[in-house]
Amino acid sequence: MEVAVVFHSRFGHTQKLAESIAHGVSGEGVSCYLASVDDLDWDRLDRAAGMILGAPTYMGSASAEFKSFMDATSLRWLNQAWRDKVAAGFTNSYGMSGDKLNVLIQLAVFATQHGMLWVGQTEMNQSSESTSLNRLGSHLGLMAQSDNAPAHQTPPSGDLQTAVCFGARVAKITRQFYR
Ligand SMILES: Cc1cc2nc3c(=O)[nH]c(=O)nc-3n(C[C@H](O)[C@H](O)[C@H](O)COP(=O)(O)O)c2cc1C
Question: CA–CA distance from 89 to each of 136, 152, 163, 171, 174 (Å)?
């Protein structure tokens, strides 16, 4: 059983989140395929029991590269090839809001068009400090915020830790469905 983390990242920030999510999946003893949309192994993706989808927010929407990935799945949609896989989503942008919710909605609609089972984000928001879990208070999926700084400095530790927890949650739920 494997969970795929499918992402796009132009400047490396969303990739850092994807890596933290993968860390959370692996921490649960579940195999993880960290899959950039720039270089996808489609057969491996088809075999995954769960998929965690991630795109940076560009102009209030998923990046064009991630949207190309979404559009490239239309035959699989027609055949409902991914029905009943577990799915979840994440996004990252510069603004505290930045219209990230629109991207999570895009990802959730995409997953449910495929008949996948959408899993939300359950860490509780305790404060808006950069070390806090779920500081942006998102539940449809994982949100993170990155400053315009190199990816080794941002997103901050709280967002990365939220990502680890999110990966662990999706791994646990996927295991419940596929044991
Ligand atoms: C074309 C473009 C559009 C963007 N649009 C938004 C936006 O709508 N909201 C926002 O908060 N940040 C926006 N940003 C900032 C990015 O979301 C931010 O730099 C993010 O960390 C990039 O992620 P990446 O390093 O994974 O590519 C935009 C950046 C670019 C390049």
Answer: 15, 22, 11, 13, 14
Cα 40 to ligand 1 centre (Å): 22
Per-residue pLDDT of 43-59, as tens digits, reads: 999 999 999 999 999 99
Rounded (10°) angle between helices 13-27 and 157-177: 50
Model pTM score: 0.98
- Ligand 1 pocket mutation, candidates 92, 93, 136, 160, criterion most atoms within 8 A of CB: 93
Decide whether any atom of ligand 1 lies within 6 Å of the 91 Cβ.
no
Q: Which residue has the tokens 């027609």?
A: 78
Q: Give nearest CA residue, ligand 1 atom 4.
A: 58
Q: How remote is the CA of residue 1 from the centroid of ligand 1, in Å?
A: 33
Domain total of the chain: 1
Q: How far apart are CA 55 and CA 41, in angstroms?
A: 18
Task: Assess whether pLDDT exceeds 80 at residue 179.
Answer: no
Domain that holds residue 62: 2-177
pLDDT tens digits, residue range 84-93?
999 999 999 9
Q: What is the CATH number of the domain that holds 88?
A: 3.40.50.360
pLDDT band at residue 10, thresholds of 50, 70 and 90? very high
